[in-house]
Amino acid sequence: MIIRSYDFDWNVVTSNFPRLLEGLGMTLGITVIVIVLSMILAVPVALLRMSNIEVIRWVAQGYIELFRCTPLLVQLFWVYYALPTLTGITIPGLVSAVIALTLNLTAFMAEALRSGFQAVPVEQIEAGKMLRLTRWQQIRYIIIPQALRQQLPVILSLNISLFKDTALVSTIAVADLMFTANKIASESYRALEILTVAALMYFVIAFPVSLILSRIERNMMRGDVRGGRKKSLAAQMVPGAKVQVTP
Question: Which pTM does this prediction carry?
Answer without folding.
Answer: 0.82
